[in-house]
């Protein structure tokens, strides 16, 4: 089951690299976070780790519900451009993405052999880290870059829950708090776009 | 043997039903009065009774091509994974054979389009060539990776293996190939994001453009071929990516199989109702996603074993 | 109790910034003076002292960095009083600047004193995000663009740091459990870890993240661009506090990794900082305005500190670090005055000061400008000598003595390019250009004097002894 969720996580990430519409991108981010939260809860139940279940629940609420909603609200309020064509053409991405995946899978191999966790989880989370970097690189607009940053955080969280079965609770809470702070800052940055000079 | 032949005959018989079923759901969703589910048969009998006119410009290809379009697809029907327990199945046919036979059928379809010597036919053929060239690698990769997961390169055996022992630990790559195959199912059968079989707009049509100049029995055969192609893909999807229900007794297994087909139809109908047709030059993007997922599934399987 | 006093100035500043009166700008700098209380309290504690369970720690290193950054924040907040005299800023923007300054400070206090990688990261990320808005206080389109730029680049950098931290945690968790994020626990048990390779990869990735954040080798220009676009206190805060916090993280991480694989660490950091200095030397040579110049020079010093630290010159690295943390913010603060007439007049920037304040100002700034390129009485001179000495010392036990000497010679050539450029700028500032009248305010003078006195205090034998005792 966790393989299935991780697969969907990566799949949504790859689809969001091909996406050229902002709302669609937010939707894929939502699915991505949903899979992540479900995965955290699932692993937490499997290894009887209450902290992981709690942080999975927070992920579900914060990343899968609040942040997509806020992003959509912000993009409506500030009339962000909704057509976001990727800079990297799809023909090149078709070659690039498998290349990155193969590369990261082979990079991750020695790492994943050292951990007692499932090796594919770690490889997939590392490759999703690279894919989010692609997502951030291929757009000129700010909004998809923000979504890329948030997805990067998702990928790191995935690495945290798969490689280490969750970080200490205080740190997890701090990370969530920082995400909230990032949203506040993004809101402020959008708000004061009125530029004088 | 009887079970084997009768399932194939069943597939042939219900194939027009599925396409009508998709249209029905779509019309229902868009608040139109749905057509009858037997519309496919009605069209078929109407075309059979019509006079067959062949353009003077055409060569012998037009007279032969419809049969050659249909026959490879009928052959593929014999090679599909079994639907019920105890039926015969051909275990040694792999992804290349099935893809090759389907492309053979597509090849004659394109010839048919070119042979009519009208501008539409050539246009349709070139578009079809464009799309099927992109479909083939993804198709081979996908079917290949699924049959690798099942532990046997033969598609029939793979379907049986998957049904008997589902590869739990290869769930991720299984999922990727399912996504890839679903996109192929849409693209290869001319469903909406790629082609719209219901319109005759010259900017969009692909399949319709090629068969614009033929009538009567030939048209009936080509339409039948396209519905059989759909059922081939649908039943491949049903037996490779929804591998359950094979262990029950024959009637229940058949019912489960038809239910799976109907689920696929509903999914396609929902997708068609909710998306707009892609511009032709955006189609490679969709197929590119499919190729990426097919490749991803293969490397996830090989490198990670997941 | 101590934690309350530690966070008090920042929280107080945050609260006071919501008061909407005009005079509040004069009150806010004095709020920052309350940071002296926890500083004194921390120095009286027995080392190492644990705060908040095991999450925060007061040891000699942390205490030193904390002291340095508090002095800098006092100086910066003093100089902030006259920000509106030099640049166009609204009163409301002032309050907002202080609000985010307080948040920034809060994050950095946490990460400076953290004994836990996770807390360190959380504090750093928090500070980074609040800086974004501090850049945005400058109400221009460039600043807006650069604020976004900073947001994107820095969040990537910081995510890379988190990536490394997770790998380190994963490598040590089987041994240490939830304590695997604890710096001290890791330091004590590092040799028992079963997967040192994973730990090293984690460290390397973390270091790359930190080096991006410091503006090292491949990412040289973004920091300078951002500092150029923002008001001058922001780069002062960057160079004084933020870089200190990043650096202390580097110190703590590398101290652990030194235990398991010293050569690899040394080679990695050596190549990295060498390339950085190589590029930055020429960037400095081409720099056309003060803030870019100082910003590149900051990158160079960070590379030097990292280099000294990994080659065993702990004392040299810390001295250099302290000297840089005092010098660079004061130079950045003085750019407010130096650039106040016109935009980028380098020539004649030190001329045209009237009265006693003006004379003190140009004297101090001139001294600082020479001190930053290690003209002898400056602590940087001593630190560089000790640092190169440590590098030689380290090479003595290996077969690479000649290579090390060649490397140091090459480094000195690069440093002399920077030296040449700075002295040329100093001369044109003092003797070239036209004489334009510039006004200096007493708060700036006080800020500069505070920083200068702390710089001089670094040279006292007692403080040197203190630095030596940190290892």
Give the tags.
heterotrimer, A: 197 residues, mainly alpha, 7 helices, globular, B: 306 residues, 11 helices
Outline type of chain A: globular
Q: Helix count of chain A, per DSSP?
A: 7
The number of domains of chain A is 1
Average of the residue pLDDT scores of chain B: 88
Return Rg of chain B in Å.
19 Å
Number of strands of chain A: 0
**Sheet bearing the most strands of chain B, described?**
none
User: What proportion of the residues of chain B is helical, as a percent range?
Assistant: over 70%
Series of H and E elements of chain A = HHHHHHH
**Number of beta-strand segments of chain B:** 0
SSE order and pairing:
The complex is a heterotrimer of chains A (197), B (306) and C (471).
Chain A: H1 2-18, H2 22-46, H3 50-77, H4 90-114, H5 119-137, H6 142-164, H7 169-191
Helix pairs in contact in A: 1-2, 1-5, 2-3, 2-6, 3-7, 4-5, 5-6
Chain B: H1 2-29, H2 39-49, H3 60-79, H4 95-115, H5 119-150, H6 155-164, H7 171-188, H8 207-210, H9 216-241, H10 250-274, H11 283-304
Helix pairs in contact in B: 1-9, 1-10, 2-9, 3-4, 3-9, 4-5, 5-6, 5-7, 5-11, 7-9, 7-11, 9-10
Chain C: H1 2-16, H2 24-31, H3 36-44, E1 49-51, E2 56-58, H4 60-79, H5 83-86, H6 91-112, H7 117-136, H8 141-176, H9 183-189, H10 196-214, H11 221-229, H12 233-260, H13 262-286, H14 290-310, H15 314-338, H16 355-371, H17 379-396, H18 401-431, H19 442-458, H20 461-469
Antiparallel strand pairs in C: 1-2
